[in-house]
Amino acid sequence: MSSNIVKSEKWYKPYDPIIWILLIVVFVSISTYEANSNGYDGKEILFNKDITTIKEAIDETNKIIKEKYGDKYKLYRISGYSNNIYSGINIQPNLDISYLKVKGLSKRQIEYNVSLEDNRIQSTYSTMNPYLDKEINFNYNPEKLDIDNILDIVESKVNMEEVRNGYEPYLNFSIYDNEMDINVGYYKSMKNSGVDYNSSVDYRLTVDLKTQNIKSEIMSTK
Question: Which UniProt keywords apply (predicted)?
Answer without folding.
Answer: Membrane, Transmembrane, Transmembrane helix
